[in-house]
Amino acid sequence: MSDITKQTLTELVENIKNKKLSSTDVTKAFIDRSEKSEKLNAYITNDFTSALDKAKKFDQNPNFDLKLPGIPVAVKDLFCTKNIKTTAGSKILNNFVPTYESTVTENIWNEGAILLGKLNCDEFAMGSSNETSFFGNVQSPIDENLVPGGSSGGSASALAAQLTPVTIGTDTGGSIRQPASFTGIVGLKPTYGSCSRYGIVAFASSLDQAGPMAKNVNDCALLHEVISSYDPKDSTSIDFKRSHYSKELTNNIKGKKIGIPKEYRVDGMPKEIEDLWQKGIQYINDCGAEIINISLPNTSYALPTYYIVAPAEASSNLARYDGVKYGFRAKGENLIDMYEKTRSEGFGAEVQRRIMIGTYVLSSGYYDAYYLKAQKVRRLIKNDFDEAYKKVDAILTPSTPSSAFKIGEKTNDPVSMYLNDIFTVPVNLAGLPGISIPAGHDSKGYPLGLQIIGKAFDEQNILNIAYAMEEKINFKNKITDWWIK
Amino acid sequence: MSIDLKTIKHISKLARISVDEQRAKKLADDLNSIFDFIEKLNELKTEKVEPLTSIAETTLKLRSDEVKSKNIREQIIKNSPQNNEDYFVVPKVIE
User: Fold this and answer.
1) How many domains are there within chain B?
2) Residue B64 falls inside a structural domain
């Protein structure tokens, strides 16, 4: 079967359960294609040899009751994987081999999946184009020299290029949804506290969430069902009743009220994005749901708030990289000199920039003016959503203010890079779930995404809306295999 | 507002990242443009707003105080750049 890698996760699971395919067939197909796709630079570390061994073992003694029976999966290199190098895209963790497994990946293996390898990402998940990785930028399968988005750029590229049937990313300010939008795939950022943060390299702990990335909404629901769990090892993990997301998926959204926030109509937004949004509104109407105009008045303050809160938390989280306990160490004349050189040589430019911002806003004399102020505005942003959800069940917005851009186009201007996340950041600040689904193409043929934002813990509802819209949109990703000779 | 080289040097000291003259200038430029953008928050009056410190505003769960991972010294030491069997080794601190 030459088209194995084109199949959805749900199809592969069915075919393995019906014994039309073995785990070895499937694993081999994804490894073959991954090996032909080195040009994309989607992998940092591959684990192909042991993946094949595991697949053979699964076939000898299969358990078809599992949700991901013998399915090979590559994951973002921000998840700690036991005995497999985990770098977070950074030089400072280039030699780090975890002795434990993240809860989210553990959940995936417990359902029968097999690790294919670790996928490239922006360094410590700080970036929107995958250009800050120590291991080089990732190419988008959509077009040559196009960014796949970030920070989960390797995940998005690998999935869209059919190097893995599904994958997981992390989303602190848009790092799942923006690359999903750029590469024509589905990406869900769950409610804060839905997926355990245990074993995920920390960036900004009050914002970080892991989430599924998939070819369609059904696959996304299935993977979310596997990774979302209450975990006592994460003190902010929330013990709520999780739905059987894939089983309860329905395209019946009649009578649902969907909000359209006027503040997302930002200055300079390309007409293509506005048109896409209007098309989305039309689809919602076609599905029998009701459109309601709403206001989220503090939207324009979300990005400045994020660029205080996230770097502040990052500067604190990244204090642990001191060249003593793990990771890279530079030579120094004394202990302090060693710390300073280790961090100067071990962190890339963007990470250093954010540590500096964070250190500044937390430093004596500036804490109230910046950090405390940002926490207050964060409250206002959350209040906006609380108010809106008195009137609507979900909110529809574009995922990004533009389609994917060329490699190198925005690297010299940090603020223009940060603006990529203008529609995704408010969702993280308010701790809400958001999903990006592919909804159309721009004039260059690059994918564009729409975002559905839900109430806290209401993933089932936004998955259903996405599922209903997906059917109407009937999106086809244009992948030409340009990188395979 | 303007962040000068002296401030950059001070922050880099606090952050324990050594920065040479050239990087310091670049960082000052970058941080100034980022803070120009951040200053937008001053448009908002927030005196009476409660800061939001955690999005999951629940009380932390208590657990019984018992040892779960035993004998993992080797695992903890394993990834250190320099160790002496049971200890992390760092450059000499006492003169």
Assistant:
1) 1
2) no
ipTM of the complex: 0.95
pLDDT tens figures, A380-419:
999 999 999 999 999 999 999 999 999 999 988 888 888 8
Q: How many domains does chain A have?
A: 1
Which residue of B55, B82, B94 to mutate against A (max A Cβ within 10 Å)? B55
B68: nearest CA partner in chain A: A233
Q: What is the average pLDDT across A353-369?
A: 95
Asked if A86 contacts A93 with a C-beta cutoff of 8 angstroms, the reply is yes
Do you know the residue count of chain B?
95
Confidence tier at B95 by pLDDT (50, 70, 90): low
Catalytic residue (one of A54, A76, A256, A410): A76
Window 190-229 of A: residues touching B by CB (8 A cutoff) are 192-193, 206
Classify the phi-psi angles of A26: left when phi > 0, otherwise alpha if psi is within -120 to 50, otherwise beta.
Answer: alpha
**Where are the strands (E) in A206-310, listed by range?**
209-214, 257-261, 290-294
| Chain B interface includes A301 (CB < 8 A) | yes
Tokens of B80: 């250190």
Residue B23 falls inside a structural domain: yes
Residue of A128, A152, A175, A436 marked active site: A175
B17 CA: distance to closest CA in chain A (Å)? 4
Q: What digits encode the pLDDT tens for the residues B2-25?
A: 899 999 999 999 999 999 999 999
Is the pLDDT at A177 greater than 60? The verdict is yes
Residue A62 touches partner B, C-beta closer than 8 Å: no
